[in-house]
Amino acid sequence: MGRKTICYRGSLKSCNYRCSYCPFSKHRASVQELEKDRQNFGRFCESIADRAAEFDIGAVFVVPYGEASIHRWYWEGLGRLAGLDSLERVGLQTNLSFSVEECLAVFDLYSRDANRENGREIDRESDRGISGAARRKLCIWATFHPEMTDMETFVDKCHRLADSGVNLCVGAVGAPQNIALLGRLRERLSPDLYLWINKMDGLGRAYTEEEKRAFLELDPFFGLECGSPAADAAMCSNRCFVEADGRIRACNIGRIKEGNWYQSEQEEIFRPLCGKKRCSCYLAYGGRDDFEGRQFFGAYPIFRVPKPYQAVFLDLDGTLVPEKHRGRLSDSVRRKLLALREKCPVFLATSMPAEEVRRRLGEDLELFQGAVFASGAYVWMRTKEESGKADGSGEKRKGAADREVIHPVDLKELPLLTELAARCRAGVRVYRKRNREADAERDTAYKITLVKRHNSVWQEQERQMAAEILQTGAYRIFVEKNCLEIIAAHVDKGTGVREICGWLGIRPEEAIAVGNDREDRAMRPVLTRPYPAIPAAPPS
Questions:
Q1: Fewer CB within 10 Å: C terminus or N terminus of the chain?
Q2: CA triplet 361, 527, 163: central angle to 5 degrees?
Q3: What string of DSSP letters covers 389-434?
Q4: How far is CA 401 from CA 186, 250, 384, 396, 497, in A?
Q5: Is residue 114 predicted with pLDDT exceeding 70?
């Protein structure tokens, strides 16, 4: 059983923004209402301090109706919670209208107080370390409201928070009229900040296919927003949603459970109960045990903050470039790769052979430290000595050698495959790794492709005929568009990722692979969906 996540929503129902669609912008809280909210949150924080270890709570997320970040007591409480050893993450949903420096100062102060309460001696040197450790626990879910703030101010605050050591994600409501604006926001944000899009309630119609594609380019998980997965209470036993008065649910839309956060025992509090047919928002489906984004977001995906990685593997078609686009990388993708390369190694993972990738990408291939070519049949990594060429510092140093492994295919069945290709109106290509001695007889074949004319397809019967020719079990056959691909039976993109991770001295779980088709599935468990902004890397 994983560690538990607790979401809290206080009695606050007021906001300092006046967005036209939001009911909480219409209410101004009285002094009495604010005091009640302060007391409620203080009581909740005390209960977490008392129960976090007993209940195995790893994260607390404040998700208010209104805007909580402008009230000092939320920063005081989050600071105290961040000072608890048993908590790994604390977070807050906000419109980012607070003062970054002033609020972080309050957060730091109360996290230090929590450490003193735990009996730690604090001097000036340890003071800085404690503040830094607490900020690394803090996760800010920042929502962009174009009606109320300009992009320059919002982006500046995002970067100041990230630079201060705070975890951050950025998002907005998916209003179709704002697609171009949100595209500009994506360009202005740092490449390692995740931009999410929530579906727009009250749109009055379904999104068009063009609108869906545009939002998917910004947020690869937007499809889940449109689909609303079927509810399953069994997937919600490791979380609880707590109201100001202690009422409890599995999530923000779940049925109220019997019992109360402040009186009930652990078994009753976390007893699976739902009452909904669909998980209709991210707070509902993003906290489920089976949420497919866990590999991307880590143990606490509710915060929407990507976990750091030691290496990134990126598919080409459909990920770095659009499907059916045969050109090189766009300037935007190239800039993002350059930024990501500063923080961790970046590799290609493609079903294309090395020769075609080099012909297609040209100098863009120098952006990658290596590649998994031909679905794992040929794996290559540039040595550190050679990496200088990629950033323009000069040619490869003499004596430096690539790391590579080639998984050969036997060509003894090539005559029969050639006959089959002729019957199927296809050509035959054999891809080889050239030997340094330029001895063609010693070149190693690693992939055979039977290629039909553009837009032609391979029938299952034709694939079976190829399988009968190659019945020894030494080959793997798969079809991609108009190509029937043949490689060694024991390799795929997953084996290539693991080989490179071994060369880097990291576990596969410390890497992330990004792809969008059937061949990419072999890269699990490191696979996630396409992420156009390119995923987060370890802090430099």
A1: C
A2: 80
A3: GGGTS-SPPTT---EEEE-----TTHHHHHHHHHHTTEEEEEEEEP
A4: 38, 55, 10, 9, 20
A5: yes
> Residue ranges of the domains in the chain?
4-303, 311-407+492-528, 414-488
Evaluate whether 37 touches 76 at the Cβ level (below 8 Å): no
Q: Structurally, what CATH architecture does the domain formed by 311-407+492-528 represent?
A: 3-Layer(aba) Sandwich (3.40)
Cα(329)–Cα(83) distance, rounded to whole angstroms? 45
The closest of 14, 163, 188, 190 to 100, measured between CA atoms, is 163
Fold of the domain built from segment(s) 414-488: Threonyl-tRNA Synthetase; Chain A, domain 2 (3.30.980)
In CATH, the architecture of 4-303 is: Alpha-Beta Barrel (3.20)
Lowest mean pLDDT among 83-87, 234-238, 416-420, 519-523: 519-523
CA distance 23 to 533: 32
Q: How many CB atoms within 10 Å of residue 454? A: 7
DSSP conformational letter for 246: S
d(Cα 248, Cα 238) in Å, to the nearest integer? 13
Average pLDDT of the segment spanning 86-96: 96
Residue range 28-41: mean pLDDT, rounded = 92
| Beta-carbon contacts of residue 330 (< 8 Å; ≥ 6 apart) | 321
